[in-house]
Amino acid sequence: METARRDVLLGTITWWGFHGLLIWLGVSHFLNVRGTAGQILMSDLFAGTLIGACILSLLRLTAGRILLRAVGLIGIALALLPLWQGKFEWGNLTDIAIWAYTFFSFGPMSWRHALYTPLGVFEKMTTEKQ
User: What burial class does residue 2 get, using C-beta atoms within 10 Å of its C-beta: 0-12 exposed, 13-18 middle, 19+ buried?
Assistant: First the structure.
């Protein structure tokens, strides 16, 4: 398999897979709701924003990318809050890694940033070859 085709295939799998993971994180919240009324309202808002941002991002709208970066920052802050309070859990490190990757992968330094241009990175790759 050519390197360019392999990169497109891996990029596509990563693109859809990561959006699938983020949507699952949002949906799983609604399937496992626990806590007080105030906590549930805030986490519902967070999960709803995450799902909405993923949908906007899948439609390649810049608002989705910006919302995903904002959700990433909020996710990092929510994962650091228990650490700040002195309650260490290994799951917090996983959360920080997921949200940091979300923040980085939808930023201007990422190759995915080009997906939000009119042609997108995959279209540019095919036109450059010809």
Answer: exposed
Torsion angle, alpha carbons of 21, 26, 28, 33, to 10: 160
Q: Which stretches within the chain are classed as H helix?
A: 3-31, 37-58, 62-84, 90-105, 120-129
pTM comes to: 0.74
Q: How far is C-alpha 47 from the geometric centre of its chain's CA atoms?
A: 12
Answer positive or negative: Cα dihedral of 78, 80, 85, 89: positive
pLDDT recorded at residue 115? 55
The Cβ of residue 68 has, within 10 Å, a number of other Cβ atoms equal to 27
Q: Write 117-121 long-range contacts (CB < 8 A, 24+).
A: 120/60, 121/11
With tokens 């919302």, the residue in question is 67
